[in-house]
Amino acid sequence: MADREHFGSNLTVILAMAGSAIGLGNIWRFPYIAGKYGGAAFILVYIAACIFISVPIFIAEATIGRRSHSNCFGAMKKLAPSPRWKWLGILTVITPIVILSYYSVVGGWSVNYFMVSLVSGFSAYGDSSFASFIGSASRPIVFHTIFLGITALIVMKGIKSGIEKFNKVSLPLLFVMMLLIMVYSLMLPGAKEGVKYLLNPDFHSITPSAIAAALGQSFFSLSLGAGTVLTYASYMKKQENILATGVGTAMGDLLFALIAGFAILPAVFSAGISPGEGPGLIFETLPYIFSRMGMEVPFLSRLISIVFFFSIVMAALTSSISQFEVGVSYLVDEKGCSRRQAVYIVFLFAWFLGAICSLSFGTLSEIKLAGRTVFEFCDQLTSNFLMPLGSILLVIFVGWVMKKADVRDEFTGVGTQTLSGRLFGVFYFLMRYLAPIAILVIFITNLVM
Ligand code: PHE
């Protein structure tokens, strides 16, 4: 087999992992959930969930990837003592392809909104525009194809000249763009209400369901259990620091979620609207705000809307390339495909399922799986079920199946990283006990709620 590619440095690994983590989850879910469940109090719980549960899971997943230097399926073949674990390999190859399918539909919507902001602005946008756009048959599929096509082109270029290069440029740009929008948004009249909504420290809201929400959000946001962390880590060099990668990714992800919150909520409150969760927040509420502002300050509001939707496209792309790469790396390693062939195959799968997801807002809305449209089904199946299932199995694999000495080797860079060496015991404990129990709790909460 040809030499496996590597990311250039530890920093570029963190950028790629952060790129995968930072995405639509930060922009449309975090601000809303943080506000709903107690503001600053929720954010503290969220940070604790990240440190004690999500980062250890991240490290477990990365340990398998780096140890095996293989794709998700190959990793199980190399490291697992029993062939039964191949099911975990299959699970972690399938999950990100399903995510990619509906994610790229939403990515396509973002491209559409970016184009609208560029070409005509939102002045003519009425309340029903979003619903009629996503319910129409052809336009969303055209944009889904464009978004998935761009993702495919980046992945086709490989780890270093495709994925790494793209993340290196787009992530810093994304931060700067979001910071600009945040400053603008904070200066709007009435912005304070948005800040209060996000930060109001209401400790009474910290109920068990708030804790489950914090965990669930940190899982989706850090892309855990979907094979992306494993696959990216398989392109890490031996001497690179897994602990720093996990902590760096979680910090970047949190920082971006907060910046997105301060960019979006003040604008929403300033327009006198109460924030909602999900696609409606960015595709309905914000165009409405832009169109209203457009009457007073046309140039600035137009510019802000262009930058905003461009940021969303970028954030979605840095995540979709990580989902795409999992399937590609599997097909290249296990099925002997060339990278180009593998990209075509993943593209076709995700395109087809994505097209069905897209049509489930209109033509195919009558087709229901477990009472949900295909889009809702794919979304909920992956975030509420497949990602936690992948996470619990990965963490059990590292905590209970792999040899402790091997895990320590990966965690400490073969004993060269002193801080990691000192913290190993703590993380090993978290991986073996706390993380699996916490995942089980979310699982049950999701099933009963
Ligand atoms: N973490 C990404 C987000 O917040 C979504 C994602 C999930 C990416 C799973 C990769 C794998 O939008």
Count of helical segments? 18
- Ligands: phenylalanine
The protein's oligomeric status is single chain
Strand content: under 5%
Q: Into which percent range does the helicity of residues fall?
A: over 70%
Uncertain spans: none
The rounded distance between the terminal residues' Cα atoms is 48 Å
Please tell me the overall pLDDT: 92
Walkthrough of the structure:
The model has no long low-confidence stretch (mean pLDDT 92). The chain has helices at 10-21, 24-36, 39-68, 72-79, 86-119, 129-135, 138-156, 159-186, 191-199, 208-221, 228-233, 242-270, 279-296, 298-335, 339-359, 374-401, 404-411, 418-448. 79% of the residues lie in helices and 0% in strands. It has 18 helices and no strands. It has 449 residues and is mainly α. It is globular. Helix 3 packs antiparallel against helix 12 and helix 3 packs across helix 18 (418-448). It binds phenylalanine.
